[in-house]
Amino acid sequence: MAGRALALIVGAAVLALTLGPLILVALHAEGGWSADLSALRFTLVQAALSAVISVALAIPVARALARRRFPGRRALVALLGAPFLLPVIVAVLGLLAVFGRSGILNQTLGGFGLPAIRIYGLHGVVLAHVFLNMPLAVRLILHGWQAIPAERFRLATALGLGPRGVRRHLERPMLVEVLPGTLVLIFVICLTSFAVALTLGGGPKATTLELALYQALRFQFDLGRAASLSALQFALCGAAVLIAARVAVPGGFGRGLDRAVAQGPAGWRMGVDAAVIAAAAAFLLVPLGAVALRGAPALLDLPSSVWGAAGRSVGIALISTALTGGAALALALTPGRWVEVVAMLPLAASSLVMGTGLFLGLFPFLAPEVVALPVTVLVNATLALPFAFRILRPAATSLARDYGMLAASVGMTGLARLRWLTLPRLAGPLGFAGGVTAALSMGDLGVIALFAAPDAPTLPLLVQQLLGAYRMDQAAGAALLLVILSFGLFWMFDKGGRRA
Amino acid sequence: MRLVLALILFPLAATAQDRPVLDVLTYDSFTTEWGPGPQLKTLFEAECGCTLRFTAPGDAAAVLSRLKLEGARSTADVVLGLDTNLMADAKDSGLFVPLATIPDTDLPVDWTDDTFAPFDWGWFAFIHTTDITPPTSFEDLAASDLQVVIQDPRSSTPGLGLAMWIKAEYGPRAPEIWAALADNILTVTPGWSEAYGLFTEGEADMVLSYTTSPAYHILAEGDDTKAAAIFPAGHYLQVELAGKLAATDQPDLADRFLTFLLTPAAQEVIATTNWMYPARAVPLPEGFDRLPRPEKTIFLSPDDVRAQRDAAIAEWQAALSR
Questions:
Q1: Count of alpha carbons within 13 Å of A171, Cβ hemisphere only?
Q2: Whole-angstrom Cα distance, residue B321 to residue B308?
Q3: Residue B298 gets which letter from DSSP?
Q4: Which of B57, B187, B213 is closest, CB to CB, to A199?
């Protein structure tokens, strides 16, 4: 009962934080409503392509990682979190080091006398989105694979099922459960992207709704247009979430004893798995390596303000993580479809609109720089909630299915149940969710700029300021520091969860 | 003992409270430790007996947006960093009051506006590495194989500057010029720093920036491989402005600050920290005299910008969307 009340409170807070600012912006609007159809079309096409390709590529990688054991596997799985957490401009520069004009790929092609490829255009946008999101898809699908009890695989072997049988009876039902949520998550992330889409899209034909929003708010100060674009984005994302909730069919694998998954089939399939893992690792690690090489020389020579900014960013990330972790857990443990919809809502919200709305609401009462850090924490916690929820929900659902009756029959409720059943059983996904939240919060740039006092920037804001002051080397160094800190937090939470 | 402490501390507390505060709203790179902000603060506070406080919500467009967001309730006294392309919008907001006098400046154009004081300026230009032959006009660029990065006029002030430059130089021929340039434009970025980053990473031959950009590389990095391509037909002028808000509770301090901004001491700070030309002729460091200066300045008055801006952006968008 207490859990349900908590979930209702969290739900109400999320609704207030996502829809409230939108309503405030709309109330201040003077202009009419309008929408940009070509922006809508481009936004949908690039997001759909990015989501489908990311997930399609992630399935074989997740399967290979699930059924093979090799030295460095843990490190590779942990590193899969990294691209998603990179600041956009840093990720773009990393990709350019590989696919750009003087990048590794074009130099190799040139060496063989082949024509150079150009990264700019729709394919560049999709490439960047796949780079950023495919690893997230791998992690989510890998969780699904590992949620199939090892006993099932052993039973399948005992029954003489070949790889095809395993696929049909174990893997396909799991994928049916995991894929819709993963697809929607990535689709919606790509819906709200704009810096990647514009920079690599090549020009105004790569206008997304989010760019149109940015333009409306920052350049034209047309609150009516901003509110209508934001409402359109909400409707799109809401529809995607509802469709996904409808097609997802709950599976039923029964309880297991948490033993390691059995080894995969031998023979040529082993070679294929090895090749898949190697290709994915190269695609992700080479650009990351380029970022590290670019930033490393400047690391020792950073301006003093970097350290204060880094401290502020870590503080914000830790508090956001605590808030999001609690809220996501409360929601994930509560049955019902409304929970799914509410928890996914913040994905549809533009942080720009959220920031502007909160500013309109708070400014008459409080000085912006006084509330800069609390507002940033609150907004970051809200924006990370869908990710944490998506990670916790499947595990929480199977927990209720597999242990709910047992716990009820021995009268285990409230804090005792949380302590002895929920937290230990969910430690893995909780750690992963905490890591993602912390790292996302480290990298956020959207809201702080509107509120922050100029002498107290966060690390992403400082990277932006360094870039704006021609200090490209120091910006690369500060960006590398940001990556190291984000990744460090992610790794600490993730590892803590897996050890528990 | 407590009484003694109180007697010692009281005058301190009183002066701290008596010091008036001047709130200046500006863009973010102005206030960073390597920007003009900290030095100007030290200089001005030494003479005004006040506290100077900067607030920086982002780039120049974000400053205007923040101002409109705050409206008449704004606690800011002075706004610093809008440019002539944003000026008509800013004036239309009705939030500014005229200055006591039209400031005396050494700009390449005559300054006649009585609401805004120019504090620095620059010419937009394409920056290239010295190993290529730079173009000498937009037609020349369009005919070449050079690849350039520009900024989106819908989200950045240099991007808007380029759209107005081509509109001002070519008038009705602007759509034709944009169409010819389309295959030379490698990509369009949301802001200046993304574009400049692509250029310094070697992705493009040229980037839209300022004629003064190479001064940073020369003076701060000892790198003289970057230069501005000079177009004899002229370069578009960007003038950065400061103005006084109608709602200020420190009108006299605001006036003093605006006067101070044009003093030689403040102007020298701005030149070498903002990497633009100062609005008054003051001695400049050596790197600046090596910079080529365009012979001709192209400039649209704020009213012309207001009248032509939407059309210029639409032409840009139409030509590059194909």
A1: 19
A2: 20
A3: E
A4: B187
Judge whether A94 and A100 are in contact, CB under 8 Å: no
Mean pLDDT of B143-154: 93
Q: Using DSSP, state whether B145 is helix, strand or coil.
A: coil
Burial profile A438-463: b = 16 or more Cβ within 10 angstroms, e = fewer: bbbbbbbbbbbbbbbbbbebbbbbbb
Whether chain B has a CB inside 8 Å of the CB on A408: the answer is no
Q: Please tell me whether residue B127 adopts helix, strand or coil conformation.
A: strand
| Cβ pair A360:B64 closer than 8 A | no
- Quote the minimal CA–CA distance from B99 to chain A in Å: 26
Convert A138-168 to b/e letters by CB count within 10 Å (16 or more is b). Answer: bbbbbbbbbbbbebbbeebeeeebeeeebee
What is the CB neighbour count within 10 angstroms for residue A422? 23
Per DSSP (E only), the strands in B95-223 are 96-97, 116-129, 148-151, 185-189, 206-210
| pLDDT tens for each residue of A24-69 | 877 776 654 555 677 888 889 999 999 999 999 999 999 899 888 8
CB of B33 within 8 Å of any CB in chain A? yes
Confidence of residue B13 (pLDDT cuts 50, 70, 90): very low
First-last CA distance in chain A: 27
Q: Quote the CA–CA distance of A89 and A251 in Å, as a whole number.
A: 40
Beta carbons of A314 and A443 less than 8 angstroms apart? no
Q: What is the ipTM of this complex?
A: 0.78
Sort B3 into a burial class: Cβ within 10 Å, 0-12 / 13-18 / 19+: exposed
Residue A180 has which token pair?
Answer: 């819709």
Residues forming beta bridges with residue B21, ordered by sequence position: B51
Q: Test A200 with B187 for CB contact under 8 angstroms.
A: yes
The answer to whether B39 contacts chain A (CB < 8 Å) is no
